[in-house]
Design goal:
alpha/beta; DNAb Helicase, Chain A; Rossmann fold; 9-stranded mixed beta sheet
């Protein structure tokens, strides 16, 4: 690209300005993503500011803005002549990055503009702080006002009038009535979707549970269902490898067609003829999810690094609807001096919530439980059982607890035979109780900002970690799934 004028100024990134303008001229539609907050005065290079202003004016009028259409407007622009004239415009387009990355470059331009303002503010304050001719109170008032102006200008404000809000409500109602959408992100589990009313971009969904309860399984099932429906899902795991995640996805995909694949047998390379066929069929099916589902198994990331990875994932997939963080206890904490672990965990939860708004997606944050439920006879979790629960509960829009009574029953099997060799009545009672819950998972909705709290029951296939609707089971139904029809005899 033609060289820009050299600037030895901190807080300036001419390349980011060039990259954004190139992306904008190549794909005018990205203007809609930045028009409410990126202004010409945010550019350091004056020629770039004029280019952006001219392009924005054309786009707002429904006209094309590219190197050709802007050329005539800048024929006599001395600043552009210094950079190479019309060739510079052509170079911007020719060397433009992927347009999907344009808004990220725009944010860099935007943030650097306000960093320069803060720098100027600091230098001016340092100069006048020791000028005794200025009254102290006047000095403080003046700089408080200036700082507030910088802070307020730096905020991206997207006000919604009552009229605009009503329009959105009507559009959503019409879409729902017509069955064309508007119901938010679907989990793919009918009863849960009915209860939650769909999840909205920006929602923080907390999935909390003990080990073995199915919290990762639930997140994986939702991510898979979102991708299958044409949405974009990104899943970060701090404990599984990419191969282990793929084992789960293969088994899950096979189970979606009622083909059984046992993850443990797969890992050992043990297949019978039916399993081999199901495995190969799942492989072919999953290949079609390539643009829609990304796995990230890099361990030891901080929440800031996960956010950076998610932004890259969104740019790569051309969208992001569902983001999984599995799980909060494995996110590397960025603790400041004087902070407690609870404070740092709260910051992770808040950043996860903020991330959903910034990326326009639902964020699923997985969390373990404290030991409160283990001391109770009824081990169904409650809202206060979430580990480091205070901040997590505060920021969550929805908190769900996957729960498998079968798991706890199997851990407490009584002695089967009495001294005389007969089956004990205690074991028979245990067996009857186990049969009633085997192959079942409950999803307890403990907090729902815009929905209905309660419990829904689903079929759970432990060998594949697949979760499915149970036909005929309504909200809060006490009906159990047919054991043999889904998982088989439990012993």
């Amino acid at each position: 690209m033609s060289e820009t004028r050299e600037h030895e100024v901190p807080g300036v990134n001419i390349e980011a300005e060039q990259a954004f303008l190139g992306a904008l001229l190549y794909e005018n539609e990205i203007y809609e993503d930045v028009s409410s907050w990126l202004k010409p005065e945010h550019f350091y290079e004056a020629v770039h500011a004029r280019m952006y202003k001219a392009a924005a004016a054309r786009i707002a009028e429904g006209k094309i803005a590219d190197a050709v259409t802007l050329k005539n407007q800048f024929d006599d622009d001395e600043g552009l002549e210094e950079l190479g004239g019309a060739i510079y415009l052509a170079d911007l387009m020719r060397e433009a990055p992927d347009p999907r990355a344009g808004p990220e470059y725009a944010r860099t331009v935007y943030e650097l503009s306000y960093r320069r303002s803060l720098s100027d503010f600091g230098q001016s304050l340092a100069k006048e702080a020791y000028d005794t001719r200025i009254k102290f109170d006047d000095l403080v008032d003046s700089y408080e006002t200036q700082f507030s102006q910088i802070r307020d200008l730096g905020a991206q404000v997207d006000f919604v009038t009552v009229t605009e809000g009503l329009t959105r409500i009507r559009e959503r109602a019409a879409e729902r009535e017509a069955g064309t959408g508007g119901g938010g992100l679907k989990t793919g589990l009918r009863a849960l979707d009915d209860r939650l009313g769909g999840l909205s971009a920006g929602d923080l969904l907390v999935i909390a549970g003990d080990s073995g309860m199915g919290k990762t399984a639930l997140a994986d099932n939702i991510a898979y269902n979102v991708a299958r429906a044409g949405g974009f899902a990104y899943s970060w795991s701090g404990e599984m490898t990419a191969v282990q995640k793929m084992d789960r996805l293969i088994a899950l995909d096979a189970q979606s067609r009622d083909r059984n694949l046992d993850i443990t047998r797969m890992r050992k390379g043990i297949f019978n003829a039916n399993e081999r066929e199901a495995f190969e069929e799942a492989e072919r099916s999953l290949a079609g999810l390539d643009p829609y589902l990304l796995l990230d198994c890099q361990r030891g990331l901080s929440i800031s690094e996960i956010r950076a990875h998610a932004r890259q994932a969104k740019a790569r997939m051309a969208g992001l609807d569902f983001l999984v963080i599995d799980y909060i206890g494995l996110v590397r904490l960025e603790m400041e001096r004087g902070q407690t672990k609870a404070d740092a965990m709260g910051r992770v939860a808040w950043t996860a919530k903020e991330m959903g708004g910034q990326l326009g997606c639902v964020v699923a944050l997985l969390s373990q439980l404290n030991r409160g439920n283990k001391s109770r006879e009824n081990k169904r979790p409650q809202q206060g059982d979430v580990k480091e629960s205070g901040a997590i509960e505060e920021h969550a829009d929805v908190i769900v607890f996957p729960y498998r009574e079968e798991y706890w029953l199997r851990k407490n099997e009584p002695q089967k035979l009495e001294s005389g060799g007969d089956i004990s009545s205690k074991w028979r009672d245990w067996h009857d109780e186990l049969m009633a819950v085997a192959g079942r998972i409950e999803i307890i909705s403990g907090k729902v900002r815009q929905g209905e709290e309660g419990t829904d029951r689903f079929a759970y296939n432990a060998p594949s970690c697949a979760i499915k609707d149970i036909p005929g089971v309504s909200l809060d139904s006490e009906q159990s799934p047919p054991v043999s029809a889904y998982e088989g005899e439990p012993f």
